[in-house]
Amino acid sequence: MIRLEKSFVATELPRAIARMTVEDATRLSRRSILKTGAAGLALGVYLARGNKAFAQQPPASPVNVAPNTFLIIGSDNTVTVLCKHIEMGQGPFTGMATLVAEELDADWSQMRADHAPSNPGLYKNLAFGVQGTGGSTAIANSFEQMRKVGASARAMLVGAAAAEWNVPAEEITVQNGVIRHSSGKEGRFGEFAEKANQQPLLENPKLKDSSQFRLIGKEGVVKRLDSAAKSNGSAVYTMDINEPGMLTVLIARPPRFGGTVASFDASATKAIPGVVDVKQVPMGVAVYAKGFWAARKGREALKVTWDDSKAEKRGTAQLLSEFRTLSKTPGKIVKQEGAVDAEFAKGGGRIIEAEFVFPYLAHAAMEPLNSYLKWDGEKVVSRFGSQFPTPDMAVIAKVLGVKPENVDLKTILAGGSFGRRAQQTTHIAFELASVAKAIGPGPGVKVVWTREDDMRGGYYRPYAVHKMRGLVRDKKIVAWTDTIVSQSIMKGSPFEAMTMKNGLDSTVYEGSNEIPYDVENFRCDLHQVEIGVPVLWWRSVGHTHTGYAVEAFVDELLDAAGIDPVEGRLALMSKKPRHAGVLKAVAELSNWKNAKLAPGRARGVAVVESFNTFVAQVVELSMTEEGPKVHKVWCAVDCGVAVNPDIIRAQMEGGIGFGLGHILYADIPLEEGRPVSGNFDTYRSLRINEMPEIEVTIVQSTEKPSGVGEPGVPPIGPAVANAIAKLGLTRPRQLPMVPGASV
Amino acid sequence: MTQLTLKINGQSHSIDADPDMPLLWAIRESVGLTGTKYGCGVAQCGACTVFVAGQPVRSCSMPVSAVGADEITTIEGLKSKEALAVQKAWVKLDVPQCGYCQSGQIMSATSLLELNAKPTDRDIDLAMNGNICRCATYVRIRAAIHDAAKSLEG
Ligand code: FES
Ligand code: FES
Does position A540 have pLDDT exceeding 80, yes or no? Predict the structure, then answer.
């Protein structure tokens, strides 16, 4: 989940990551995306062992697919799309298959999907230059590529049929997976798959005009490909890998970030039945056992003395007071326009100040972190929910001292991620390889994090303070400043060169530097502080706090000016038609102007763009003794061409629920550097009784498609805050809104 | 370690286990039925929900030795008409996102419909609020339970 400056997407980023990964990542030409070597698209190549055997491949065994394949057409007519993006709930399996099926003219019922094996040359994310999922890029960067794959395959199938029937290809039509000639001849994909391999591959096949789409953007025709397996228990996640002889590994990790092992005593651990070995590894002490329970008991019996001399020992209370002090003076300038200080000094009007405080947040995906690897000293098989397979593969090769091409890493289904399974440090892959190396070649190892390990393990959404100042004069916002204090996500990482300008990390200020409103005198500045707590992109990254600060503050200023929140925003959006578009759409959907609210209820609105997707939300809530009760959320989204409307709706619903749970309840406080919350009893999650009713409208657009995994999250917090203010209560400026909430 | 016999989905499994080991790990690792998930280990999330003697329990928090001769049903063994209606509705409405919580959700929803053929929104809140979905698929979970109830009407 990483936001990249657009100019870097095409050039620096691929080079930079390629350097740290495999040499040939960028050497492969555009042509290789469709064709590598002689085989062309793997149409029918896997007839014999394709189909079922492929789909149900045990996750930990090597996959028998040549690394040049985007789709496999089986003799049983199934079309399996190999998805280069990790399926972690956001729907790329279905999305990629939709794009292929559209141009292939396949029937939806014959479509299947699986993860592509690791191959950075072929399966690179065109936005990153390496294989990886993030920044809500999946649909955006595959929209054309996967349609071309479908169109090429269609042309090859038609060519094969034309040759077989001895008729001109132009006279052949394809519809819902059936190939037909006017003479009455017809056949299905499976029959021609093998022969299609001999057909020439079109590099630039003609793509459909959007008016011809029968799947893309259509309602009710495309269903998720993974719903059945996820409703009957058969979907296989990393946690479910259970290979014969495999060892389950739990690691005792330092209670403070930056702590190291001073000494340990494993005698009690080794006495526990099922415990096989104990080894020191760079991140702590690893307990290897036959199964989770023995590993857990073994770890409990372990006596470790930690060396905290280099550890971060500050608690969040101390951090807050340091942040507050810093926020009193401007930091390094991110963006400045007009004459802000002069305008404030001029006098007249009303100055409004606000301080917003955002806690550390854990991603806490439902499936805790985990990973699997087996090696024989030379060849490595690894399976886990890797969001960045290219760098993960490289680090595994490096730690184990094997050739990168000997690392067979395949991403498998992930039980959520929200950004956590992609790390700039590749620490999960590093840890996995270190654990395997410590015990040596032989048994497979599955590293499992308990929920507490996962929650106390850092890589949090950074702690942040925004100190805002605004000037309202003559019913106008004439000046605005935002001083941010927070920690860099990218500093010291391979992404540093791409995402940092003048030493400032754009993922910290994104959204604060470019507000959608016309304000003549403007400044955004940043104090980028060093803290020994590892931080990471968290579903919508910087927008998780900048969206809140900007949207709660503009509402407060408009309120001070006595202007309606929707009208007032629209009046300031002269250069932001897509922001204005979703705002108008949500106002209409919610009947903003004329709605009669029940007593005790109020509404609030917010609009945030992230990853080039525009989302506006209106909430209706009331206050209870336990905090805000959100009854309903209306949501308008503009994500360019809508590929899968139902997945877009699902991502908006999920993003709203995810965002709402966190702004209400979630917090990882640190006490003397130790994370306090360890499980869902103290890191409270939204539950079904707290989920609002949701209505989503998708704004029609002909813009390029953009992602939807993250952009549903940012507006919900400020919309709630603004509704609370409408009730005459203080607009919450410190999150979570219900502090100390536990179950 | 103790020898135990577990009756799961109509089959008997003899296992050798620490009597304190939670039932969850016996199901997942000793028997190899991995549809039942580990999410929290402390009865907070419901991902590990199974039926013991027909009652939904959090298998992460029940020692395997406490099960005795009671029949265990996991997601893989669901057969009741309510269960099938729930699963069908889950697919029809595309409820799952990451899917990791959904076995537990489906177990709880099935149990609700087995006891209450026509649950209200409030009944759903009460029966389902022990099951966390971090992807927040709650809107569709609710809709799918209503849909399943409706399909069972006739
Ligand atoms: S794993 Fe049992 S309730 Fe969470
Ligand atoms: S579907 Fe992901 S946790 Fe529920």
Answer: yes
